[in-house]
Design brief:
Radius of gyration: 20 Å
Order of helices and strands: EEEHEEHHHHHHHH
Strand order of the largest sheet: 1-2-3-5-4
Number of helices: 9
Strand content: 15-25%
Distance between the termini: 46 Å
CATH superfamily of the largest domain: 5' to 3' exonuclease, C-terminal subdomain
Number of strands: 5
Shape: elongated
CATH class of the largest domain: Mainly Alpha
Length: 212
């Protein structure tokens, strides 16, 4: 099983590359974000590899970081997400953007990649929310909500669908902000103590975060 390739970038296609390792050329499929950040042909390159072995083929999928590869593995456990859709998702969203969208339940953001419709986006939110949170630091979202009065831990997660945090997120969404964007701003405001005085203080504090 191939887990890592280190060699010379020999050829680049729309969604694939060929990397030469000691005279052997490996065809590797990659997300668009990886393709767009490749060095020039002829330059050294190292990729984390996910190997899929099937009866009729062996496919290699390449990622810039181990975290991207772990995200790909997790995505492809969801029904309806094959390798092609998994690559499309990671080609559109970074791991942090993906994580924040899932935790924030931002269906619009999750529907941006090709091949992901509203139903699949909903399935991603349902099936991966608990899994991503359980991985802890390996999948750190842009921010995590901290309930007012529990700032000492800095790690407990709040439910943004209920309570003051949820009301603040809804208010920002009604003002035209994306749900993930609003979720992150409210989270940061709560972490900075902006939610201690209730909704009336939390919304202005979140708006201040958005303006920075």
């Amino acid at each position: 099983m191939i887990a890592r390739l280190k060699g010379i970038l020999e050829e680049v296609g729309e969604d694939w590359i060929v990397i030469d390792v000691s005279g052997v050329g490996y065809l590797v499929f990659c997300p668009g974000r990886v393709i767009s950040n490749l060095p020039a042909v002829g330059a050294p390159l190292s990729l984390h590899i996910e190997t899929h072995v099937r009866e009729d083929h062996i496919h290699l999928y390449g990622f810039a970081t181990a975290k991207e590869r772990a995200a790909f593995r997790m995505l492809t456990t969801v029904q309806g997400v094959g390798a092609k859709v998994g690559l499309a998702i990671l080609g559109t969203l970074s791991v942090d953007e993906l994580t924040t969208a899932i935790i924030a339940q931002d269906k619009a953001m999750l529907s941006r990649p090709d091949g992901v419709g509203p139903r699949l986006a909903a399935r991603l939110m349902t099936e991966l929310k608990d899994k991503i949170v359980s991985l802890g630091g390996a999948f750190s979202p842009a921010a995590r909500p901290v309930p007012a009065g529990d700032a000492s831990t800095g790690a407990a997660a709040a439910d943004t669908d209920d309570g003051v945090a949820g009301d603040a997120v809804s208010a920002l969404v009604n003002l035209g902000y994306g749900r993930a964007e609003a979720f992150t701003a409210v989270t940061r405001a709560m972490q900075n103590g902006g939610g201690e005085a209730g909704l009336g203080a939390l919304i202005p504090a979140a708006l201040k975060e958005l303006s920075q």
